[in-house]
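#struct-help
A.M.: can someone run this one for me? Single chain, 203 residues.
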Amino acid sequence: MLTVHDAKATQKTIASAGRPRQFVPGEALQNALQLFWHKGFEATSIEDLLGAMSLSKSSFYACFGSKQTLYTEAIRAYSDSYFDALCAAARAATDPLAGVHAVLAQIADPQGGSKGCFFVNTVTELAPHDPGLTTYCQGHIARVATLVTELLVQAGFKPQLASDRAAAALSLAMGLITLRKAGFPPERLEELLAQVRHLLVLP
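D.P.: on it. Structure tokens below:
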């Protein structure tokens, strides 16, 4: 799999229109990701991608194969980077419960505006029609849930209760992304996110 970190460090030369064309695949992938995030998969044309990625059609197909393959690479790169950021937020917290709050706040991102989350946008637009993507998205959600569950266990919750509370808290946080896209004001989103504190009290 082409990862952002590996690709940024390595330049590839692809033959294009009878002459070599140099580009950094990771940068091209990031440009494609931003375009997909802004327009969605269906509304993004190959011509849009070629312009955003500064590629010829032959270079595009030689490196990425297809629009669908490119999108899959983009969502995987985004999700891996996002998960790393969530883990970092948890590690930087003063205690496990503070780590849970930090993770949930980063997911919900009440100040993030109507652009939404690329992962959630993907789940909404494509996952219902793409079994492979559905499986991947479920796996990503599961690893985030495991992160939150482990933090709750460290905070003193029994494993099953920790798992249940983690699932409920993530449902709230991810639901707030939808409300954010619908134009709910940040202040209201912050109020709703604060309700998660009721889930994080030891019985």
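A.M.: thanks! The two ends are 44 Å apart (CA to CA).
D.P.: also worth noting: The chain is about 70% helix and 5% strand.
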